[in-house]
Amino acid sequence: MKKTILILSLFILSGCVDPFLLSYGGSHLIHNMQYWEHIDTKEEASLKTKNDCFDKVTQNNPFSRDKYGQCLYEQGYRFRTNNLLYCFWYMPEKCKDYNKFR
Asked: Do 50 and 36 form a contact (C-beta atoms < 8 A)?
């Protein structure tokens, strides 16, 4: 047991293993740390709503987070995260793009 802890500690300290990914279980959980919440009802945006905005944004244009966020914002949704590490560690570029839609 001590050898396992020592080996794992060495991997973490060397940078070969991200300790935050170990604690959160991978990218599928990281993706679930962000969501779009309606300002009045406090409900999360449905898949249909998100897909409608995605389709609207990508009609004859490449995807743009700015236009996608604007579409959801105009429908009353605000960008939210349920973990501070999401913006500071995992997806700072996505948060930078969506911060104006909070």
From this structure: yes
Domain total of the chain: 1
pLDDT over 50 at 24, yes or no: no
pTM: 0.69
Residue 68 included in any domain? yes
Residue 79 domain boundaries? 20-101
Residue 4 lies in a domain: no
